[in-house]
Amino acid sequence: MRKLTMMIVLLTLVLSLSACAGGGADAPEKATEAYLNALVAADADRMSTLSCADWESNAMLELDSFQAVEASLKDMTCSKTGEDGETALVTCQGQIVASYNGEDTAIDLNSRVYEMTQAGGEWLVCGYR
């Protein structure tokens, strides 16, 4: 009986840990939101940690394009819209508002579908379509 109890406890622990490794049902969306927040905050270190290795140089180029402006997010919400193999597809609503010399330009977030992949149990931006 004791052996059976130990096996049940061990199985429960393993299942709990594997559920945590996925980062939760909304993890790809939250990682996309964190990436966009890092972009408008001009936080290169954070963008780097939120990007897969293949996308990191592109993320830095994207960040460079916002260096001369003040940027903020307006009404951002992101949701998982599908999967492509092991890639989660995330679409966001809202805008990035870029200000330069007192002039605002709104960039719609819904023009991209973010490709999110998992590495080390974390969801990372690995491109967009």
CATH class: Alpha Beta
Reading the helices and strands in chain order gives HHHHEEEEE
What is the number of independent domains? 1
Termini Cα gap: 55 Å
What Rg is obtained from the alpha carbons, in whole angstroms? Answer: 19 Å
Helix/strand structural class: alpha+beta
Principal-axis shape equals globular
E-strand count: 5
CATH topology: Nuclear Transport Factor 2, Chain: A
CATH architecture term: Roll
Largest sheet: 5 strands, antiparallel
Helical percentage = 25-40%
Number of helices: 4
Mean pLDDT: 85
Percent strand: 35-45%
Low-confidence stretches: 1-22
Pick out its properties:
alpha+beta, 129 residues, disordered N terminus, 5-stranded antiparallel sheet, globular, 4 helices, Nuclear Transport Factor 2, Chain: A, 38% strand
